[in-house]
Amino acid sequence: MSELTHLDEQGQARMVEVGGKAVTHREAVARGEVAMRKETLELIVEGKAPKGEVFGVARIAGIMAAKKTSALIPLCHPLMISGVDVYFRPNYDRNTVEIEARVRVTGQTGVEMEALTAVSVAALAIYDMCKAADREMVIGAVRLVHKSGGKSGAFERKGEAAWS
């Protein structure tokens, strides 16, 4: 098990010092999903959800969340993010909307938390946009699937195929 970098020698929370780290291009990809009734998924895809166009609102919510991560997660550094993409993929076999966020930065620390936050808030926006039609939606499976750049190198979650 690797060292918990956000704890000092006494076990107290601390913000990691990144000043001596190399500036590199870093990317993180996270995914999650919102499970729902078949009828709710159809409303979303057909653009007939009660509050309007779901994917557009959720995409903006995810992008905004990535930019505000340091205000939400106490020990995250504020970053000059260079790009955020949020994608949605309806899965009719499972009655889910799958969400993927890709976040990029050229800096001294990674953007894993920004990608995870983008997915989480995009999922919450989908829930908010559709709760009048389906209060039983379930948000889940939020996970990091890829990271690159920095001293620790690349990470790829096994079994996660790339989205085209």
Describe this structure in words.
It catalyses: (8S)-3',8-cyclo-7,8-dihydroguanosine 5'-triphosphate = cyclic pyranopterin phosphate + diphosphate. Catalyzes the conversion of (8S)-3',8-cyclo-7,8-dihydroguanosine 5'-triphosphate to cyclic pyranopterin monophosphate (cPMP). Its EC number is 4.6.1.17. Keywords: Lyase, Molybdenum cofactor biosynthesis. Homohexamer; trimer of dimers. The chain has helices at residues 38-45, 54-67, 69-72, 112-130; strands at residues 24-35, 81-91, 96-107, 138-148, 155-156. It starts with 23 loop residues before the first strand and ends in an 8-residue tail after the last strand. 27% of the residues lie in helices and 29% in strands. The chain has a 5-stranded antiparallel β-sheet, covered by helices on one side. By secondary structure, the protein is of the alpha+beta class. Helix 2 (54-67) runs antiparallel to helix 4 (112-130). The chain has a single domain (24-151), classed as Alpha-Beta Plaits (2-Layer Sandwich), CATH 3.30.70.640.
The separation of the N and C termini measures 34 Å
CATH topology call: Alpha-Beta Plaits
Secondary structure: helix percent? 25-40%
Task: Write down the secondary-structure element order.
Answer: EHHHEEHEE
Mean pLDDT metric: 91
- What is the CATH-assigned architecture? 2-Layer Sandwich
**Sheet of most strands:** 5 strands, antiparallel
Which percent range describes the beta-strand content? Answer: 25-35%
- The number of helices is 4
Number of separate strands: 5
Organism: Pelotomaculum schinkii
EC number: 4.6.1.17
Pathway: Cofactor biosynthesis; molybdopterin biosynthesis
Family: Belongs to the MoaC family.
